[in-house]
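Final report, closing paragraph on structural work. Over the funding period we assembled a curated collection of sequence-structure pairs, and we close with a single example.
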Amino acid sequence: MNTVSKPIIPSPAPRSSRPEILAEEIIERLTYRIGKDAKVAKPHDWLTATILVVRDRIIDKWMASTREVYATGAKRVYYLSLEFLIGRLMRDAISNLGLMEEVRDALASLGVDVNVIAGLEPDAALGNGGLGRLAACFMESMATVEVPAYGYGIRYVHGLFRQQLADGWQVELPENWLAHGNPWEFERRESAYEIGFGGAVEFITTHDDQPRYVWKPAERVIAAAFDTPAVGWRGKRVNTLRLWSAQPIDPILLDAFNAGDHIGALRESNKAESLTRVLYPADATPAGQELRLRQEFFFSSASLQDILRRHLQQYDDFTSLPDKVAIQLNDTHPAVSVAELVRLLCDVHGMDFDQAWDITRRTFSYTNHTLLPEALESWAVPLFERLLPRHMQIIYAINAKILIDARKGKNFSDGEIRSISLIDESGDRRVRMGNLAFVGSHSINGVSALHTDLMKVTVFADLHKLYPDRINNKTNGITPRRWLQQCNPGLTGLIREAIGDEFLDDAEKLRALDVHSSDPAFQQKFAAIKRANKVALSNLVASRMGVKLDPSAMFDIQIKRIHEYKRQLLNIIEAVALYDQIRSHPELDWVPRVKLFAGKAAPSYYNAKLIIKLINDVSRTINNDPSVRGLLKIVFVPNYNVSLAEVMVPAADLSEQISTAGMEASGTGNMKFGLNGALTIGTLDGANVEMRDNVGEDNIVIFGLKADEVSKVRSDGHNPRAIIEGSRELAQALAAIGSGVFSPDDRNRYTSLIDGIYSHDWFMVAADFDAYAQAQREVDQIWTNQSAWYTKTINNTARMGWFSSDRTIRQYADEIWRAG
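Its predicted structure, as stored:
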């Protein structure tokens, strides 16, 4: 009998890293993939050609990484996040592959500057702030520490808005990062799934007399997969970031189009595509809320269908799912996944409810990122039930199971039952997504030691009582590759010169730098690098905003999402008080200071947008006042993103981490600044607590109320007016702002903002002002002794290695996922 043997498919030969070969390949891609002659190629053509050459080298490692998982049966981690703030990828990929010098030389031989074309790469608009940047750091670290992983999110066409300033006001414009395509991504046509909304649920009996529920959605869209490789350090492993794009089942209703209804013919197409158009659509309206919930279910369902399909390709059934799959929910945005996995296991794959619920709980884990009640998502029951009727049934079934156990098994009181219920009945009934994520996960982690402790006694106190072994801490981290090696090559080179290369593979080896912190020669080199970074930022500010900065001044920087709890308002009020002091006491030796702000306010968050306007109004007055003599300048840099952070972080002398204690879960900007040699001024909030423990109390400036003190002040009855009246500098600053000194065109512009501080001061701006102002003068004193300053800032760089995301991911892998 004749047999046909399978053809042997040869593996491609390893690609050369020699500059001359790289140059040849860049020309080849330029010619045959882009269709340009080198003589007429534009910088963006060279960028795309270079990315394609680098991408080829990644693909070899990517496929090898995938084959290894199938061969070994290793457990996979799936990280579900509504945001992935990945930033520009070319420099990151080249650096992690160890090809930076080779690519630089190859391009130079072609007359191209790698830095010029790298600056043209779009900054992917896939996130807002710390949550999304953390997810990006985790993707890089999972590949670095060789944890097989997929990241799942949404391929936003516009993502978060592009921020411009118009007369000091934030203006939101679409961010067209995908306008010219994305050479990093690969469309996966075979990975497309139907996602349903609305409709009804039918009860049927199967051929073996088993009851079964069938959801028949009224609307359906297709989730199409686009994959981007995530390269680990030294290219040891390449994981996958899979982003979902929404597509209509029928792109055009041809009958309607031919009948002349050209707009109606595209209705379904437009409705589907709106799902993945914008990150965080404004949810102040019912339509915005519905779109937000649709987005969350869309990417959660697509991701779970993909996970289950991949599992069945390798294993016989789903009983092994918790042993081979770990799914991490990054905040509450993907919490609907808990109900969706139960639905898929029961309704699609025929499993009984109890077994499906057991598998679900053992598969999921949940990271909480906030103690703010309004940030723990909830959805109106009528909206949820109309959009996801089968999931509402499942949530009620889960809730019954939990509440019966709590009442009968744990003797919970009525109040405790109300607290743990998945349905909030204190007003209009709402589905609590934080509670759903908690009960549906075997592990719930906070992101700093303080945050985790507070979770147990605040938002999840009663759930912690019900499940006392589930909450654990995993303090956040940052990838030192992007946030030191790539964004601060000057400092990286100096460190290598001083202590060798071990820190490149293990950030905690930075501790060896401690012995150099008081060395005058090392301090001089360190200071020269800091100044060069400040010159680079000054040039950026001058080119974008026409504002000239003095690099010899202290660069005092606060960059983060604009929110009242992050207290940009405290910072700018203190700047007004300092302005008054400089004018009133010109005879004193004031430290020259540049205060830089950057960050975006949610479009519907009026007070946050008003704070941006206030910063710009104050800056206009101070920057143009000759009596200040250039001793104080204030700049708000628009359109904060990863690329801007990569310039601002290395240039910072002082890092502002001044959130109201007990309200910041962790923070990661604090870690980036510290790693790059900035002194931190901050409250004992989030990871600042652990930063103080790591860098030492002498190398950080702490002020203000602690978390328990904030809680006590609020419960005892806070009297901000008495505090203001007892603080001359605060009273004068608030009076100036409130009376329109900085807003002569509208004297009442800031009346409500200032009245809020007088009447309730929820964010403790008045309560912490005097301590903050005193801490700033302490910072001035340290600055006047430059040797002491650099001893502290060098110690910060040396002692920040523990905050590497590699350490964080190893803890997740060992203690939660049991993977890697």
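Residues 250 and 269 are 7 Å apart (CA to CA). The domain at 544-797 is CATH 3.40.50.2000 (Rossmann fold). We thank the funder for supporting this effort.
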